[in-house]
Amino acid sequence: VESFTYLDHAATTPMRASAIAAMTPFLDQCFANPSGSHRFARQARQALDEARDLVADLCGVRPGEIVFTSCGTESDTTVLLGAAREGGGDLTAPTGLVCSTAEHHAVLDPVQHHGGTVVRVDATGHIDLDALAAALDDSTRVVSVMAVNNEVGRITDLGAVAKLVRQRAPQALLHSDAVQAACWMDLAQITAVVDSISLSAHKFGGPKGVGILTLRERFTLRPLLRGGGQERDRRSGTHNLAGIVATAEALRATVEGRSAQIARIQALRERLLEAVHHHIPDVTVTLDPELSVPGIVHLCVNAVESEALLFLLDQAGVCASAASACASGAMEPSHVLAAMGVPSSQARGALRLSLGYTTTEAEIDAAVAVLADSVARLRHPVRM
Ligand code: PLP
Questions:
Q1: Which protein residue has the closest C-alpha to ligand 1 atom 8?
Q2: Mutate which of 74, 101, 179 to test ligand 1's pocket (most atoms within 8 Å of Cβ)?
């Protein structure tokens, strides 16, 4: 493999070796369907139960409050549509959805599609609490506010959000998309104040294709997928047992190493910001590092287009991202930066460098050198 510098951990992380080791026996030796009744199925069921117990414990919820899904997007959609239709028929449109303008599309799009209320954020990307208060009433069914923003890393004060929701819409389910939180925050502290969270295994060293939804037992859902009745009828479909076992191990390793990684990555972030400041003129750090998780550094590079910059970075072996790339890889203007009031001239040079458990000092230094060179080339193209 050619050497490269990977600063795109918020998009996805490499799988942890211990998670790969944990999953391998379930691909060939213990491949049975955990819903079956023979001895191999029972073995598989036991592994599933153990993974569920571990994940529940790490999330601060009960095993019955864990629903395994196929991704973070499915977890978000399941709770948004499932809880907002509860009581109605399957074809009843969900109503009473509320979220913030800075949500990931996995929340924003379903809320907008079903005519929900989208609440503005302030200049730091935090949901505006006065606007949220005004959006809540006795018709509100699900409020969804992300724990950590995926573009700029902004951490939400979920305690303040929960207080408002409990006061003004006590009947509502409060959900938090915590997909970007797992590496940085104590999930039990989050589940202590909200009713449900979504996680995605590939963001913390697990495999792609496994999501987690925690949902407090007092809430019922209209399932998106009906069929074999797995996950207590909340999500039918044969379990991805190997993926689930690997997810549990990845989350265990993430939680075990979390405080050490936070300290290490905070130091790497400081090194990165200092070097950027030193070597690249006219770059704005979008968010005060105090307000964001250590792993996400968002910059706006003046007088440079993200797309051209990413192209040069890629050519030099540096993997980074702009604000939001859609599935086709094409660049879209960031709805998060627009919601924060970042002028579009500035947002055009958006660059997200995201760090994770494999990031090294050498990678930071290499990335800054390439970045400085690329920015200079774009700003001062050599004329022939
Ligand atoms: N929510 C947030 C905040 C994310 O960052 C992502 C992925 O980037 C998702 C949801 C979607 O997760 P998945 O890719 O597992 O569907």
A1: 11
A2: 179
